[in-house]
Amino acid sequence: xxxxxxxxxxxxxxxxxxxxxxxxxxxxxxxxxxxxxxxxxxxxxxxxxxxxxxxxxxxxxxxxxxxxxxxxxxxxxxxxxxxxxxxxxxxxxxxxxxxxxxxxxxxxxxxxxxxxxxxxxxxxxxxxxxxxxxxxxxxxxxxxxxxxxxxxxxxxxxxxx
Length: 161
Known about the structure:
It is a single chain. The chain is of the alpha+beta class. The protein folds into two domains: 12-82, no CATH class; 88-159, no CATH class. 17% of the residues lie in helices and 42% in strands. It is built from three helices and eleven strands; from the N terminus they run E-E-E-E-E-H-E-E-E-H-E-E-E-H. It has a five-stranded antiparallel sheet, covered by helices on one side. A three-stranded antiparallel sheet has the order 6-7-8. Strand 3 and strand 4 (47-53) form a beta hairpin. The model has no long low-confidence stretch (mean pLDDT 90).
């Protein structure tokens, strides 16, 4: 059994094809076609990121801040592409029908309509004002700070949380 390798600022990460990355360790060992994935995708977006090959885990990034700026940028871009989460900027309408919410929202990716089955479980308000939403199809959305929403949107959110 090999021990877990932690990636540091002395290692280099570069962009490969199809959103895969290449890791060049300080020792000179090179790993290609790696996929970065968050071990805690909801609670720790910038820490504990695993680098996976076809054969399993190659290494772990404890904190993105542990990497050099170029490597950090490559990892962020790869993760952003994999964990595509639209950011809600406005709640256009919210209808409660038989216990299911149907929201029409404006996001950074356009207008979306989706259903939320369990408002107590699928709408999570964080202390910092961030709101995480999961729809009935298991898609994720985020509101960066509900306090920055317009009055109409805040009212729609408060009614249903």
